[in-house]
Each structure stands twice: as C-alpha cells, then as structure tokens.
Amino acid sequence: MSFVEPNKVLFKYRLDGIDQSWVEAGNRRTAFYSRLPAGTYRFRVIACNNDGVWNTEGATLSFTVAPFFWQTWWFIGACSLAASVAIAAFARHISRRRMQRKIERMERQHEIERERARIAQDIHDDLGASLSRIAMLSQPGRGALTEPAHTTAMLARIYNTARDLTRSLDEIVWAVDPKHDTLDSLVDYMGKYAHDFLITANVRCRLDLPIDVPPWPLTAEARHNLFLAFKEALNNAVRHSSCDEVRISLALHADSFELVVHDNGHGIEPASNEAPAPGGRIASGNGLQNMRKRIARIGGRFEISSQAGAGTTVSFTVITSRPRAGAAPGPRS
Known about the structure:
Low-confidence stretches: 271-284, 323-328
CATH superfamily of the largest domain: Histidine kinase-like ATPase, C-terminal domain
Shape: rod-shaped
Number of domains: 3
Mean pLDDT: 80
Order of helices and strands: EEEEHHHEHEEHEEE
Number of strands: 10
C-alpha cells in the first residue's frame, strides 16, 4: 500500500489450477474468471509499491465453486441408472416383438394347416362319399338294364347325388375363398342357400334381414362353423318339424350379431329321460349337440327353444371383432 503515489501500485494474481503463471493486472484491482468448474480453489495476489518493490508473500483467498445439480454424483448416477433401465427395457421390447412375430407366424401356419385339414376332411366326407355313391349306382347288374323303371330310378338317384355333390363343392369353394370373410357375404350366401333348399323341400322361406348388412370381418373357421350349424338347423326343420314355413332373421348388436331360425312345425318333444332347460330350451340329439359344439368352437352361444304345436326357434349368437357404430339398419324381407 502506498499513500504517496497509489496509482503506481501494481498487482499480479494467480488462481491455482487455472492460471499457469502470474497474471499481470497493472493497477487494476479486479480479476475476472468465467465458467469455473466446480471445485476448491486458492486465489493469490502480490503487489509492488511506487518504488517497484514486490511483496512476494501477498494475500491468499480460498473458495469453493458449488456444482450445478446435473454435475452432482447422485444426478450422474441416476442418469446412468435410467439409461441402463431404458436400454434394458428397449432390448426387452425388441425381444418381445420378435417373439410375438414368431408366435404370430406359428399361429398363421397352424391356422393354414388346420384349414387344409378341414378342407381335406370336407372333400373326403362330402365329395368322396358322393363320388363313391355315383360309382356304385352307375354299375347295376346286367338284369337291371332290362327294367326301365329300375333304370329310371337309378338315374334319378345319380342325378340327385350329382346335384348334392355340386352343391357341396360350391360350399367348399365358398368357405375357402378369403373375399367372403365378411358378415354381409355370409348372410347373402346363407339367404340364397336357405331359399333354394327350402323351395326344393316345398317349404316357404321368409327372410327377415337388415337392408344393409355391415362388412364385419369373420374368419374362415367362423364362417364355416356358423354355416354348417345353420345348414343343420334348416335340415332339422325340414326333416323333423313338418313345417310349411321357416323364418330366418338377423339382429345386429354393438359387439355381436344373432342369427335366428324359426319354423312353424309341431315342435320338439323332450325325451322322457331329459328335463327341459329353463325357458323351455332343450338340447337333445346329435344334431343339436353338433350345432352347439360348432358355435362354441368360434366363441359363440347356441340356444334352442320349442313348444309342442308352436314350432322351434334356434338362435346363434356370435361375437364380432369390429363393432358397428350407430344404430342397426332396418329389416328386409
């Protein structure tokens, strides 16, 4: 310190760990440092008087710069842990996606194999049996050729078998065609089938269907099982109910649809050793059990109710994978 000529007092300073040598400050009494890393520092200052004599001991100031929160050990550790968890979760997600794709491929392959087995079974049961019957009817005894009445009957049976064979082949082709995997296509095909089948049996067919059936997606298995159950219901009505009218209706719900087949025949009498189910429903006979199994196989619900002299009502309820928004369209006849 000099009171004679204070403007000749000179300073040098040094911040240990930052400055490599003393910094000439002249007569400036301030030092500037920016963006000091977090840590503990020692600031040293020496000065000389107006005679140029330096004080080598100088003055010392120790201070600490606190770190920002993102520079603390706990924040770095938390970030490292979060990064590790994120990498592990991402790796697990990728592994699960790969496993899901593998499972989906296996399921599709299994579905294809099951569909192929079903087609082979249909061909064996329907086409094979019909062709065998035609072959047997086409080889009568030599004496039968001299009997016109017998020959005519044989030809009539061959014609009926060939017609049934053609119908079975049409059903198989329809069942495997993916462009028919919608509800509207199924309803249209069943309506045409019911009309042709019932007209041939001399039974009046009444269709109570929506004007616009939505194209809800259906699997080939669902279409096939529902159609076979529907076909069985029509066959039972024609063969066992002595009806002269069958009414077929379709009701659309938020997440399902209900197909109902009702005949005005004499109804079904429960077997003596079977008690009727609540609501008058009954479930006896192989045909009814087959319908129940087919609908249960596609996750649906099968119900049948009948009263003596009041006809029989068969109901198939199927859950859909894509609910229809808005109200259901009106019926058509």
